[in-house]
Write a structure and sequence with these properties.
α2 packs across α8 and α9 (143-158) packs antiparallel against α10 (165-183). The longest helix has 20 residues, at 114-133. It is globular, with a radius of gyration of 16 Å. It has one domain (3-183): Orthogonal Bundle (Hypothetical protein af1432). The protein is built from ten helices and no strands. By secondary structure, it is mainly alpha-helical. The protein has helices at 3-19, 35-47, 53-61, 64-67, 72-79, 81-89, 98-108, 114-133, 143-158, 165-183. The chain starts with a helix and ends with a helix.
Amino acid sequence: MNDNEFTTFITALKFAAEKHRYQQRKDELKSAYITHPIQVVEMLWNTGSVKDIVLLTAALLHDVLEDTPTKETEISESFGQQVLNLVKEVSDDKSLGKDERKRLQVEHAPKLSPKAKLLKLSDKICNVRDIRNNPPAAKDWTLERKMKYLVWSKEVVDAMRGIDLKIESKFDEEYALAFSKLDTL
């Protein structure tokens, strides 16, 4: 990563932190939301050996369109059209119901670009790992809901298989660990 790319990356990190500043993860500790996009970047960098600045920047920003009042122009003007396109590709349409959004993720997964598949896979790994290590509050997420989330995540990942064996294997590992832990509860 050169100086210009690092500057872009740090600027995106600051942008994401500001956009997500009032959001919290669903875990019992209500962790700062920004930890999630950072974990996705870490997964891409360490497990996928991804060094592509567009993909890493999009990973930091992957939830800002669907979870914050961020405008598309804010992303395109600050980080370029390629980053915006990638963020849009992995963003759900929040005007649709939850079940419809989940169905569409499975349906659209095989049609995603290679970079979007890597981003989506890394996102799913981090979410599945959180179900195991930092689960949502039991009062909000029953055991059945957690199990259904794991099964649905696997459906999305299975629809994208063939893009990166290391990242896919990491998903399989995290899925098995999470499912095993929940199965013993």
